[in-house]
Amino acid sequence: MPFLIDDIISAQKELDRFRSTFHKHKNSVDHERFIFPFLCGSYFTYRKIDVERIASIAKTVSKDPTYLDIGCGYGDFLEKVRQYLPNAEGMEKSAEMFFKLGRYKPDYIKIGDAYNEIEKKYDVIFVGWMEPGVDYRDKIAKKTEVIITTFDKGGQCGINGGCEFEGFGYERVASWITPSWIDVNTELMNRYYSKISDETVKSLSELRGAHNLWYVYSKPKYKEGIKEKLRRQEKNQVDLPYPHEKILDECGFEVGELLRVSPSSQSSPGLWKINFDI
Ligand SMILES: C[S@@+](CC[C@H](N)C(=O)[O-])C[C@H]1O[C@@H](n2cnc3c(N)ncnc32)[C@H](O)[C@@H]1O
Hints:
Blueprint: H1 5-22, H2 28-35, H3 37-40, H4 48-61, E1 67-70, H5 76-82, E2 89-92, H6 96-99, E3 109-111, E4 122-127, H7 137-141, E5 144-152, E6 171-179, H8 181-192, H9 198-205, E7 211-218, H10 223-235, H11 245-250, E8 275-276
Parallel strand pairs: 1-2, 1-4, 2-3, 4-5
Antiparallel strand pairs: 5-7, 6-7, 6-8
Helix pairs in contact: 4-10, 8-9
Bound molecules: S-adenosylmethionine.
């Protein structure tokens, strides 16, 4: 179900209320991005390493790559990507979410529907969202060499949860998982905004298990080059992580952390660890 503008307006009112109530709370600004992800952050919980991975993947295709973020919302993630890929653009279907809330729309975000308005070709297309029941994978496939998707395990993506791009001329290159903003949100609410004991907070944290999956697909000729770049990059330390990453660390969502609940996570490499496809 797509957002209605009235839902966004109500969320903005809740955000204003949160700000006036908790403005003295240490770190409340960094908490906002996980409590009000659409308005203050992103629906996926990222670190600088995600952005650096995307930039190095794009630079495998071209020295000065073009990039499109479909369904970029207010562009929080896109803005970070642009620090590495200055040509990066966004496409967002809803014009009213900018003008009815008085939010600035930068020129690099175009209003349009990816279903029929991807006009030119891009080196990389990032698909962070596809409405359930809507499937424009064939349209994307005509417009790019590399596709990066992220979606939650619940599968909001396309018809029958289809975010896979094999069958459209791409091969899967690599994947990794990041925490779900819902788990981070729940942890923050339990720890800092509810009156429950530390022991209960700890036992509740063991119930987490939702996560986001990030998949990289490319045309076969780029596959090995992308893997090599990602492998090299995995060895480098990120300088100056984003300020919000300290919240992830303190809430137990460190790089390499294993998700405890899901049985499949026993064999998973842990949060943010890259799994390479053959
Ligand atoms: C769940 S929000 C995610 C926004 C942002 N990527 C984030 O992480 O916060 C999905 C966004 O995709 C936009 N959207 C949905 N279908 C679209 C389409 N066909 N073309 C372009 N944008 C679309 C919606 O208007 C909404 O802003």
